[in-house]
Amino acid sequence: MSDEIAENGTANGDVPEIELIIKASTIDGRRKGACLFCQEYFMDLYLLAELKTISLKVTTVDMQKPPPDFRTNFEATHPPILIDNGLAILENEKIERHIMKSVPGGHNLFVQDKEVASLIENLYSKLKLVLVRKDEQKSASLRAHLSRIDGLLERRGTRFLTGDTMCCFDCELMPRLQHIRVAGKYFVDFEIPTSFRALWRYMYHMYQLDAFTQSCPADQDIINHYKLQQALKMKKHEELETPTFTTSIPIDVNDLNNSEQ
């Protein structure tokens, strides 16, 4: 296991330390892997650490060669795993519930918004269909779904999904948008249309936040995540590549800023 990125908050008697165990890169076994749930909970907890309600420790585990102490403690369980005061929470739904009910400040991240919840619920399955079927019909379905999210953001005019502060829905959506952007482009040349200006404005704001950039896997890890699912082998030169992170915006950022004023 290798420790990672636990800068926010300091371990002291006043603030509880939360440890989040996440999947490591399938390329080098050390850096952050491309697990959507791992990144989602990393972002949730990072926001709380920024508010100094907790101290956050993040640990990566290479699931291709898990260390003996990991196997002893967790057997065949895959990350994410949250550890709070010696208590290990192993299932995604239970981790989410624990952050909401038991982690200091966590309840503030979990807002009620049925429209947003239903809108982002099936987005990831649309990406999976695009990558498996690789036909224009599936790509059109994914574009239509993104268009609905763009419409909601345009209609609400807020910085994030439910307002001008981030919530759990943003921590769920943005990692999925990044997978759509990176894997969609690599495998089927899918691109989020530049006409979705509200969506790009949203992504621009997310790219400015440490909660996203500190938790985001490299492009190569996102791509390899889907290569492994499709039983495709990574080429040697790809293993040696310097990690890259796609965070550019294909429309004028100044224009985006002006449109908000």
Question: What topology does this entry show?
Answer:
Elements: E1 2-4, E2 17-23, H1 36-50, E3 55-61, H2 68-74, E4 81-84, E5 87-89, H3 92-101, H4 114-121, H5 123-133, H6 136-156, H7 168-188, H8 197-207, H9 210-213, H10 219-229, H11 236-239, H12 253-260
Parallel strand pairs: 2-3
Antiparallel strand pairs: 1-3, 2-4, 4-5
Helix pairs in contact: 1-3, 1-7, 5-6, 5-7, 6-8, 7-10
Notable features of this structure?
261 residues; alpha+beta; 5 strands
Spatial strand sequence of the major β-sheet: 1-3-2-4-5
Note the total helix count: 12
Low-confidence runs: none
Which strand-content bin applies to the residues?
5-15%
**End-to-end C-alpha gap:** 47 Å
Q: What is the helix content?
A: 40-55%
H/E series: EEHEHEEHHHHHHHHHH
How many beta strands in the DSSP annotation?
5
The overall pLDDT average reads 91
Largest sheet composition: 5 strands, mixed
Mass-distribution shape: globular
- State the secondary-structure class: alpha+beta
How would you portray this structure in words?
The protein has 261 residues and is an alpha+beta fold. 50% of the residues lie in helices and 9% in strands. The chain has a five-stranded mixed sheet. Helix 6 crosses helix 8. It is globular. The model has no long low-confidence stretch (mean pLDDT 91).
Compact overview of the structure:
By secondary structure, this protein is of the alpha+beta class. It has helices spanning 36-50, 68-74, 92-101, 114-121, 123-133, 136-156, 168-188, 197-207, 210-213, 219-229, 236-239, 253-260, and strands spanning 2-4, 17-23, 55-61, 81-84, 87-89.
